[in-house]
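Table S2 (continued). Query chain:
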Amino acid sequence: MENFLKFYKKKAIVDTYDLIRLSGIKRGINREIERIIIASLVKGKKILEVGCGTGFITKVLAPKGEVIAIDASKEMISRARKNVPTAEYINKNLFLYSPKKKFDSVVAIRVLGHFQLENFEKAYKLLELNSRPQSVLAMLVMSFARER
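Corresponding output:
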């Protein structure tokens, strides 16, 4: 996990992150993900976004409610804060984050795929623990877990 954290702290990665994620076919996939997420959320609710990156999904979530966005990369948080100043940002690893209240929605897009298999279940359980009963848990998980 430490290796991928080093990867996302590099200025070159932060500066090109959205260009790479939104290029070519990924643009259509990301728009569909946005549509699904927006449709699943109830307006005016408390939302936790795990692994907010540069704030691409945060921007979609912000009109729906109070967004708390966490990311382990201080550099990504800094960029997200510029892109979506209305959200609250917390620079923490998911395993170290312990909110005082539970959330109506928890969103984790392309985050859990970074974890090794033995940490995947632990991460999922943390997302579940941070959710209220009957809350929405929106996840997109890549089919691999690797160190960068």
